[in-house]
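Hello,

Following up on my earlier ticket. Below are the two sequence lines again, exactly as submitted.
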Amino acid sequence: MLAEGVLIAPQFMAARAEKARRMPNEPMDEARFEAFYRKTAGKIWSYIYRMTGDAAAADDLLQKTFFRFLRSNPVIADEDHLRRYVYKTATNLVFDHFREAKRDRAIAAAEMPPPDDFRADRGELRHDMMRVFGELKPQERALLWLAHVEGSSHEEIGDALGVKAKSVKVMLFRARKHLGALLSKKGLAPQ
Amino acid sequence: MTGCRFEPDVIRAAASGEWTSSLRGHLDVCADCAAAVEVGPWMEDFARLDDREHILPDPAVLWLKAKLMQSNTMMQRVALPITRLQIGAYLAVAACWAAVLTWKWPLIQAWANSLTPSHVVLASAGTQAAATASLSVSFFAGIVVLSSATVFLAMHTILAED
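Thanks for your patience. The regenerated structure is below:
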């Protein structure tokens, strides 16, 4: 009985995934959403987390991203389009988050501590790296992450950031130079 | 063409350390790719930092919440005309109250004064009877109708919220 259950579970999962794959033009159902979510959510969370340096904010913004995604009643067949839409939504939400944080900081002045992982008082490598990355402008962080980690094309980056693909070339160059200068200043530049 | 066509290869080579001579030569003539190489290895290390053992929200819960939010939004959209009608009714009733009170204010004041003990005594002596007689039955009927409308509106709002 138990063995049967163990055998059925992967078959059931495979059937759901197959069903999700076979119906690209229909409105997204729960099975298709689950398949898409499992494929993208981890990457989106990492992207938001590296942008904000705050795990709690990343959780919150990830949920908001997928709520917006579902509210748009996605029916587009191409999964690449869906992925682009999610990155664009996540980027917009992160920028909104920074705008809100900036406004709150203006009100609360020095009372608010910086997000957990951009804090300077931890000596670990990850926090040093997060701190360096946190010194970049939010748009520069997005550009670098999408170009170097996600391997996105300039067109995809432009789509996510709401700028022309032609402008991405210049913006990316400046972002790289800015990061390069920060790494050199902190003695972290690769040899 | 928006970026250098060698850029993806350069980023990959910078991450893996596997360079071809032509690709390395390209760095001398392409400032974009040279800048990519400058930060490429660091970005690779940065991306490889583990994000702790992070538990992502369950997609089934997200799906359910999104559907609930959608139905709430739909309900709000459906209830919007009713809410507008309620606001209109409140404004109309308030305007009626204001009109009645403004129009009959001197008479109401006189009638209220007539209820004081000294006026009651004088009225019973027959010296001051005009003020109390001037507020008609139709005025009191109007007040009753307006009060009923106010109570009805308040009850409707409370019950609609429930």
